[in-house]
Amino acid sequence: MSFVSEAIQLMKMNNFGEAAKMLETHLNDQGIKPSAKIGMMSWISECYQKTEDRAQAARWAEQAGRAALACKDMPRGEKMKRAREEFERALSYYEAVNDVNGMGRMASLKYGLHASS
Fold first, then answer.
1. Within 13 Å of residue 86, how many CA atoms lie on the same side as its CB?
2. Longest CA pairwise span in the chain (Å)
3. 77: how many CB neighbours lie within 10 A of its CB?
4. What is the pLDDT of residues 68-80, one digit of tens each?
5. What is the pLDDT of residue 61?
6. Cys-Cys crosslink for 106: which of 3, 39, 75, 91, Cβ 3.0 to 4.6 Å?
7. Are 43 and 7 in contact (CB under 8 A)?
8. How far apart, in whole angstroms, are the C-alpha atoms of residue 21 and residue 31?
9. Which residues, other chains included, contact 20 with Cβ-Cβ below 8 Å and sequence gap of 6+?
10. How confident is the model over 26-69, as pLDDT tens digits?
11. DSSP secondary structure letters along 74-90
């Protein structure tokens, strides 16, 4: 997973767009645990946020939240907490770009998690 250190180096050089693309390219590599993929999706989201592409940032935060819910490697409480955090970030990014459909999806998912906790 040397690509992770390369992506981190790109982020340190403020080259967030390239870092996001590199992480996206390796997201489906063999041997990456589902819990690690959640972290990668979250990093991708953060990179896009730093490039001010909030639509992509929202998309990736939403994917990270959905991946957290589906992750069988994490205890229930941890996956719910992680999903809630990612959905909250996605909601704020969708609000920033005035994506009403995205806001609705995230509000439903986020508040649905509160009801099932």
1. 27
2. 42
3. 9
4. 999 998 999 999 9
5. 98
6. 91
7. yes
8. 19
9. 43, 44, 47, 48, 51, 56
10. 999 999 999 999 999 999 999 999 999 999 999 999 999 999 99
11. S-HHHHHHHHHHHHHHH
Q: How far is CA 26 from CA 4, 6, 17, 21, 41, in A?
A: 9, 12, 15, 9, 11
Domain that holds residue 75: 2-116
CA pseudo-torsion sign 115, 80, 59, 47: positive
- Which single residue is written with the structure tokens 């996956």? 79
CATH of the domain at 77: 1.25.40
The residues near 109 (Cβ < 8 Å, ≥ 6 apart) are 65, 83, 87
Domain count, the chain: 1
The pLDDT assigned to 110 comes to 80
pTM of the model: 0.92
In what helix (H) or strand (E) does residue 71 lie, and over which residues does it extend?
Answer: none
The token pair at 116 is: 């099932």
How far from the centroid of its chain's Cα atoms is residue 15's Cα? 18
